[in-house]
Amino acid sequence: MEKEEESRAILSCYREIDNRIKEKKDEIADARSNMFISIMNDVETIHKDVRKPREQVADAETLLGLTNILMDSVRSHTALCITPPEFVSCLIRQFGQLKRRKELLDSSYNVSWVDIGSSVSPIFMSGSGCRTMNGPMLTVLKQRKPVVHAKQARSVKRTHPKEFKAAVDLISDTDRNIRAMFEVLKRRKKVQVESLILNRDSFSQTIENLFALSFLVKDGRVHIYIDETGARVVAPRNGPSAEEIKTGVAKHHQFMFRLDFNDWEVMKEYVPCEEEVMPQRYTFGISSCSAKSIVEDDIGIPEGIPIDRVSQSVCTV
Q1: Where does the Non-structural maintenance of chromosome element 4 C-terminal domain start and stop, copy by copy (predicted)?
Q2: Measured distance between the N- and C-terminal CA atoms of the chain, rounded to whole angstroms
């Protein structure tokens, strides 16, 4: 309610100013009157409280009415402008000097240009923000200063990043595991997939065996097939020669084998005890039902990467 009352009061003030403009339009156009300044001060005071669109429209209409009155006043003054004869008469009246000629016995006027110059000289005085330059500009060409680039010494120091021994050991362990698996396949000729990759004492080493088998399949050094009993069998074969790889005759192979912890538990029950062919890669905690020892196979392979027992692995190479 208070905002509506304020809006009504503002609109009422603008209507009052409009009425004053219509009634005092002659006084507004008079240069000797202060009516125009008084009305503009009132408009500026009310404009500070304007917020709504209706109030803005009323403010604009008030300014438009005031502008129209001023434009009408300017048009009326320009319609009655001074003519050249009137301008000359004014100069003679203000600065003329009477001079009589004896020959013609008539009177003539001589204008005092000194007095005219003295009267209009304030117009040509130095104004605020206006400066002039006297005399011609200097036309002598200035020599351009040569640009001297600072020489920067190149850094000749070379840095060699440190090689991480852990990564080298990891690659070496993987290669040794692949080589050990291929030696087992060469001795046994053919082995079931489950017996080749299973390590019933370590889920992580089972995943490592599956990882090594995927590399052998990719390089074409083993092939997997199904025998007459329906079992998946792995058998070794000669890998492609360098010439076959260079010419593109040899092709890469891949296989997919899903294995998680639950599958590993089922595989331990499916594969009979002591039929795992891959050796253990540690010398402690060997169960009575584990595979052949490292001493029996004469292949020394360090412990591989530990893998989370709840994870699952899908090998694709």
Answers
A1: 191-278
A2: 79
Residue keyed to tokens 């020394």: 300
pTM for the model:
0.37
Residues 6 or more apart whose Cβ sits within 8 Å of residue 102: none
CA angle 153, 155, 158 (to 5 degrees): 165
Exposure on the CB side of residue 218, measured as CA atoms within 13 A: 11
Please give, one letter per residue, the 3-state secondary structure of 89-106: HHHHHHHEEEEEECCCCE
Residue among 303, 310, 271 at smallest CA distance from 290: 271
Spell out the domain ranges in the chain.
Answer: 2-79, 84-121, 167-315
pLDDT value, residue 114: 86
Per-residue pLDDT at 157? 67
Task: Report, as ranges of residue numbers, the positions in the chain whose pLDDT lies below 50.
Answer: 100, 102-105, 283-317
pLDDT computed for residue 302 by the predictor: 38
